[in-house]
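The data are quoted verbatim for completeness:
=====
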Amino acid sequence: MKQQGQDPIARQAGERLVDHRVIMPRRIVEKPLRQVGKRLLMAFGVLLLTVLIVWIDRAGYHDNSDETVDLLDAIYYATVTLSTTGYGDIVPYSDSARLANILLITPLRVLFLIILVGTTLEVLTERTREEWRLNRWRAQLREHTVVVGFGTKGRSALQTLLATGLRKERVVIVDPSSKVIETASAEGFTGVVGDATRSDVLLRAEVQKARQIVVATQRDDTAVLVTLTARQLNRGAKIVAAVREEENAPLLKQSGADAVITSASAAGRLLGLSVLSPSAGAVMEDLIQQGSGLDLLERPVTKSEAGRSVRETDDLVVSVLRGHRLLPYDDPHASPLQLTDRLIVIVRAAPPAEVLGPRGE
């Protein structure tokens, strides 16, 4: 097999692969350091307020060591009181001091504990909530799309799928880079950190329940391993893979890919077509860019079209898919159309509101 380039899935240098994690779409929350900083400031403010209350009424307090309460004693008393330690060496003995302890210092003590303990409780709550979201996601995920590799090819393929109405909740990104997955999570996708050539990583992406799998790695040998593993885990999913070298395409198909796209050859052909005819190149680029201008799509034959010629349909038919045969529009066997046929047609791109189907997929 001819190998080209450096694949993020295969690279080890420069970035240590973390354990295989599932990262749910990120919610917009305040930065953790800022949250902790705010709570520390609040706790410090409560401590200063307690010191001020004790210092103002210092005459009502008794120190067993020297019988007087200075500023240091006030700070010491506020600290041990808010932490509920209470050694008893400094005690309020006047009615005003005891009343201040009941009405002011005790609520401040409770607030101080809430601020400090609240951070830990929130972390535990957030972990529990995240675990619940993950379990709920696993239980509900069905017929989704797995994209292996979130580079240029993976992003472009995903943009095309989203333009046809695929929802972000129905997409799982697999990539070994935690930074890439964090970026995908920020964009609303669920991501799995790990090497997609490993079956346990693909199982975390629920590939066994996926409807379609896009293999967009940079190395052809990695694409073969990912395709083999994915096909072993899911016999019915549609797998589309990209390779750099055309000579590796047959190996991808033998590995279980339903369709193989040769990225280097395809780009070269488009370049050559643009040299011969820039307008024709622009039309081809428009066709493969879903959601704008003209779209090339596949649809079933309607009841009103059954029995008619390909030229009598409302859309511009390019090919007819009959069983496993792909018939050109001018093939004599393409007409009349059958109800079980599927048509490859060129249509005007629909507005986003019209693209979404009943299932939003």
